[in-house]
Amino acid sequence: xAEVPPFGIILPSRPVITNPVAVSPTQFAFTLPSSPSFxxxxxxLVPGNALPAATLAAVYIQFPGPNPExxxxxxxxxxxxxxxxxVNNGNQTAATKGExxxxxxxxxxxxxxxxxxxxxxxxxxQQITIGISIEPAATVEAQLASLKTNTSSALVVANKSQxxxxxxxxxxxxxxxxxxxxxxxxxxxxxxxxxxGGEEMVPLRSFRGxxxxxxxxxxxxxxxxxxxxxx
Length: 231
Hints:
The structure is a single chain. By secondary structure, this protein is an alpha+beta fold. Helix content is 27%, strand content 26%. The strands form two sheets. It has a five-stranded antiparallel sheet with strand order 1-4-7-8-9. Strand 5 and strand 6 form a beta hairpin. Helix 2 (172-187) packs across helix 3. The radius of gyration is 31 Å and the shape is rod-shaped. The N and C termini lie far apart (82 Å).
């Protein structure tokens, strides 16, 4: 009786693939043509198979290119025997949801792994390799934790960079408050004579001087009011 293959994969519009190449007793590889392009891949433990105790099956992917290194996607195990991995041009995202989860929860896009895949049609169809390695659970979990941390850090940096390129617009109310603040700071130094009620007076020419100075600064640096520290 032929041995049942331990792992299988499913790609949209393609037959189920359950014939990996056994690189070693604990390492398996699927080689797939990159065309037709695909956005999701399902990795599953074939029924009738079970992983050794305290192990997980780490899933890696290798894209064609000048640096064909394997990148960790995620893992499956005896408790979660199926995972969906979302693959986008320029980014691919891993998921390790259980097979009994709702369809909307099957794909988790929170752990992005930077990769590259050429979605354009070419004369020579390139190959994508998916590797599955049975490793100690503690080792895989540590790698996944590191992957998530690195991804989160990259997203934070990207968000900050985006904010620097496209700062949040200042509201009209804030702009008005900053104009008033600018005028007050300038005119306060000219306060001198007091009225009968004890209120300080500012000469009209001082206000005119502030306005001329304010106009010149707006011409030279139109965005200075958007920087609160410069007001």
